[in-house]
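Chapter summary example.
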Amino acid sequence: MNEANPLYEALGKRLKYARELKEQSLAEVSGAVEIEETALDLIEAGKERPSEDILLLLISHFGIQDAEAVQLWEMANYGGELPDELKTELDLQGANKVVMLIAQDVRSLYSDGVDVTVTNAGVNISFTQSSGKGQTLPVAKVGMSLDQAQAVIKTMQLAILKANLGQHIRSLPSKTDKS
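The structure predicted for these 179 residues follows.
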């Protein structure tokens, strides 16, 4: 049986994570990029490296762009020049590249439900809102690493504790406080 190749394990895990974020099965993705389901399973397990064409199709299918797409290409260890599909307008003849995320909509989205999916690759949280017709509609979806999810949980627990205790939080007076 094929052993996982340490060079391609991270690539396989990232591709599997991308598939799970899209909530697609092996069969759906393998059909979309026209490869055998077993071949995609071997790629996700890090046992085989996808061909350059298949990797480009997977990147396109999952909507992976810019720096992350280049990172996947580098993880596949193809070497040489990047294919045109992965080059961006930000490639300013070797200049340092900066990726900036600008929040376009800063309104809070409220939900009354949440679905959490946890895999070895990370955590996917889908916030939902019930409609008047008994349906549950997605409001927002957030993906993160397991470490980040644990940090978020601790932060939320502390915030809730402070909100619940409010003004009741008492501390000992400092040594310089004489009251």
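To summarize the output: Helices lie at 6-21, 26-33, 37-44, 52-62, 66-75, 146-165.
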